[in-house]
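Could you help me review a protein record that somebody else here produced? What it holds is a sequence and that sequence's fold in token form. I have pasted the whole thing underneath without changing anything:
=====
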Amino acid sequence: MAEYEQGAVMLTHEDLARLQAQSLKMQSWIRQQTFSPEMEKTLRRFSSWEVAELIFKVNQSTLRGRLAADPSLPQGHVEADGRQRWYSLEEINELRRRIKINRKSLMPPRPEGKRALRVAISNFKGGAGKSTVALHFAHAAALDGYRVLCVDFDPQATLSHSMGLSDVTEDYTVWGIMARDLVRETERMNASARGAETGAALPERHLPDAITGMGLQDLRINDFIKPTSWPTIDLVPSCANAAFVEFASAQYRHLNPEWSFFAAVSRYLDQVSSDDYDMIIFDCPPAIGYQSMNAVFAADMLYIPSGPGYWEYDSTTSFIGQLSEALEDLSAFNGVVPAGTFTLPKAFLDVRFLLTRYESGNDLHRAMRDAFMKVFEGRMADHPIEMTRAVEQSGRFLSSIYEIDYRDMTRETWRRARASFDQAYEEFKGYAAEAWDQMEDKT
């Protein structure tokens, strides 16, 4: 610690590093209490009641009849008393592929000839519920039969930790993707300059060894993608050390002012096989910066969660204003973004607002919901996410309501929380389907 001459104690970066080390030890302890003894998050099985009524939305007797008629179908794990069967997500997806109800497939709608839909969950107000919404929408989509890729843009890494990933180095985060893009884009620009038939030598851009020597340009697309405990959800994770991307990106732009920094993640996702995923969900940081601009620029659809208070409403209003100005500034790059599929000015297929932590019995919440509905008419989600004890408990244990076993609380408490997220997700899926229809076919 540093000290004033008068004896006052000052805290330096060394003290902050010590405090972080202490906090990391606590994180490790929390993970031990939350996850398995191996510190790995595992996905629970789902009861036949959940599979029939909540996932497939059919009568339990209908599902039992299909299972009895075809013994080759997954039969699940039977409890000792023989009353209940429990299914893994892999088994649920096999049932989904092989069973039809009233001659209708149980597979979720997925337009042919379209790439994965990209959705950014964004608002610069902290505590708006971005990570909670991203986590629950990803899990709900996976239970619905979709293959999901999540991208954690937030250095707080709440989504990554909730997905069970914690030992992540910054090279394999969005920062690594952006640094890799800088090197590759600079090399492409230099090659174009050398190949120009102008008769005049164009200047080359030179990057320091500190950047090119990291070897990030040699990483493959899948090196950034990590599996999770959900077999149909993958994640590009984040970590606390990725926070310096805002400082690094400013330096990178100085090294190569022509680098379209805001399109780095979009260019990266263009290289991911369009057949690997159905939905790509972004969890954005609570700020407008280099990472969040990459997220909104890469997104087809923008989902803006907000709490139901006046200050949240005020902050959300500021957010869309500042985002508008930032996107307008990007238009200075003009036309088609180099090596990317998006064009400028940036346009979204849809923009929606979603209330979170809503209490229907709270007069202020109801009044603020009316205000949101009036101001953002036609853009407001009809079904807010309600604040319940089950939602609070899921947050404490770094889990979604879909991961919590309903036997760990009263079934009514669990069902109420799940119903809130189910309704919000079903509405989201409807908007997503409309956005997909507007999307151009993949080339």
